[in-house]
Amino acid sequence: QLQLVESGGGLVQPGGSLRLSCAASGFTLSRYVMSWYRQAPGKERELVANISTSGGRTRYADSVKGRFTISRDNAKNQVYLQMNSLKPEDTAVYYCTAQFPGMTTPNYWGQGTQVTVSS
Questions:
Q1: CA triplet 41, 107, 4: central angle to 5 degrees?
Q2: Segment 50-55 long-range contacts (CB within 8 Å, at least 24 positions apart)
Q3: pLDDT for 90-102, tens place per residue?
Q4: What is d(CA 15, CA 118) in angstroms, rounded to the nearest whole number?
Q5: CB-hemisphere CA count at 13 Å for 23?
Q6: d(Cα 76, Cα 92) in Å, to the nearest integer?
Q7: Is 1 exposed, middle or buried (0-12, 13-18, 19+ CB in 10 A)?
Q8: 10 Å Cβ neighbour count for 91?
Q9: Distance from C-alpha of 54 to C-alpha of 113, rounded to nearest angstrom
Q10: DSSP letter string over 47-112?
Q11: Model pLDDT, residue 1
Q12: What is the DSSP letter of 13?
C-alpha cells in the first residue's frame, strides 16, 4: 500500500516549536520532490515548503521563512518540518506530499496532522 503518514502535530504555545515527520511506505521517497502544505479553517490550502529529491534545494512560503526548516532523510524514507517561533496564524492541518519531478500536482498526500498554536 502506497501511503504517507504524518506525525508530530499537537498543541503548542505561541513562540514554541514542533517537529513534524512524514514517513513513506510502499514507495521510495528519494525519487520525489517532497512538500508540506497546510490548510486552516475557512482558508485556501497553502504550500509551506518543499525540498528537492537530493535535499539540496528548498523553498519556503514568505510567511514561514526564517522560522520553519524542511529536511529529508532518504535512507529512512522520511521528510521533516521543524517549526520554530510558532504563531497562532500557523494553526492548521499540515499535509505531507510527494510529487514526481515534472508533474504539476502531487502524486501522494498524507492524511494530515493538526497543529494548534494557542495560549
A1: 70
A2: 51/79, 53/101
A3: 999 999 999 999 8
A4: 10
A5: 6
A6: 26
A7: exposed
A8: 17
A9: 25
A10: EEEEE-SSS--EEE-TTTTTTEEEEEETTTTEEEEEE-S--GGG-EEEEEEEE-TT-SS-SEE---
A11: 80
A12: -
